[in-house]
Amino acid sequence: MPTILVLDDSPTMVMSLSLVLKGAGYDVETGANGREGITKLTDGVKPSVVLTDLNMPELDGIGFIKEARKIPAMRSTPIIVLTTEASGRKRDEARAAGASGWLTKPAEPNQLLSVVKQLCPR
């Protein structure tokens, strides 16, 4: 079963994303910020896809992407930024850091699953 790592400082967002992904048959690991995400990765979680918010405490989404890309197993793992941020500059910054894609919150469940399925066929 593919694992999706969801990073967001909003417990409500984490819960709703987890429900959608688990309902579609994915295993879900979660964290409230980029630092928790890096800890999960270094503790052995091997996600097929990562969904990360941009604006989080401790380590934001861009910082998480930069750190995650330093981990050999994460160099080619798709990382999708899921955020309310609409700035083209932020999007360019995320891509430069190694983001694979960008979705604007709130993402419709069908849109989210479509993107995840493209990146992580079961």
Task: Note the run of SSEs as H and E.
Answer: EHEHEHEHEH
The whole-number mean of residue pLDDT values reads 92
Q: Please count the helical segments.
A: 5
| Distance linking N and C termini | 7 Å
Could you characterize what this model shows?
The protein has 122 residues and is an alpha/beta fold. It has 5 helices and 5 strands; from the N terminus they run E-H-E-H-E-H-E-H-E-H. The chain has helices at 11-23, 34-42, 61-68, 88-97, 109-119, and strands spanning 3-7, 27-31, 49-52, 79-83, 101-104. It has a 5-stranded parallel β-sheet with strand order 2-1-3-4-5, sandwiched between helices. Helix 2 (34-42) runs parallel beside helix 3. The radius of gyration is 13 Å and the shape is globular. The mean pLDDT is 92.
